[in-house]
Design brief:
This protein has 79 residues and is mainly alpha-helical. The protein has helices spanning 2-24, 30-54, 66-78. It starts with a helix and ends with a helix.
Length: 79
Amino acid sequence: MKLALKIMFIIFIIWMIIGVFLINTEHEKAQIVMGLGVLYLSFLFMPLFIYFRYKDGKYKKYIINDEKLKEAFKNIKDS
């Protein structure tokens, strides 16, 4: 999965470089190429990236719950 994400990111970068080149040369399909690149990023690459990063529950240390709030207030009171 990690290799697939790297390949997809490289494809996105190349796609955007081609889109910028087409915009600079005022090609008639330049806006379409850039728009499809943004759609690729938002609907294919980002969901796979987010799934890969958070599939093992690594996000749980960033969630604020009651226990963490009580601990934080306790540390403030002790200071």
